[in-house]
Amino acid sequence: MVPVGLTTIYGGYFGAGQSVLILAVLGLFVEDSLQRLNALKQGISLASNIAAAIFFLFSGMVVWEAAAVMVVGAFAGGAAGGRFATRIDAELLRWSVVSIGLAIGIWFLVTL
């Protein structure tokens, strides 16, 4: 739970690559099919983004035009990603996501 929690804090603040990081963490710590992990990742991402949106909503710093574009892109990307994940080899996808997620996480830690 701690690694997933850390990825949701990161995702709530920054968002870029959040889904890849969550799926990578889930892939390392939860033994299940990639399709089920992807569904769990979608729920976790949705919950953390709603929590962050509520926080930022009351900050008065929201640029609503940009937010509207991001909402449309997030829902479209989530739907397309879910469909794509069911069409490729699960083992290849699992290790690709874990590898890319870890590489991105390490890169962000080193460059920040």
Percentage of helical residues? over 70%
What composes the largest sheet?
A: none
Order of helices and strands: HHHHH
Number of strands: 0
End-to-end span in angstroms?
A: 24 Å
Overall pLDDT confidence: 84
Q: What is the total number of structural domains?
A: 1
Low-confidence stretches: none
As an assembly, this protein is: single chain
What percentage of the residues does DSSP assign to strands (E)?
Answer: under 5%
**What integer value in Å does the Rg equal?**
14 Å
Given the structure, what is the number of helices? 5
Label the overall shape. Answer: globular
- The chain-level structural class is mainly alpha
Write the layout of secondary structure elements.
Blueprint (H helix, E strand, L loop, with lengths): L1 H12 L4 H12 L4 H24 L6 H22 L4 H22 L1
Helix pairs in contact: 1-2, 1-3, 2-3, 2-5
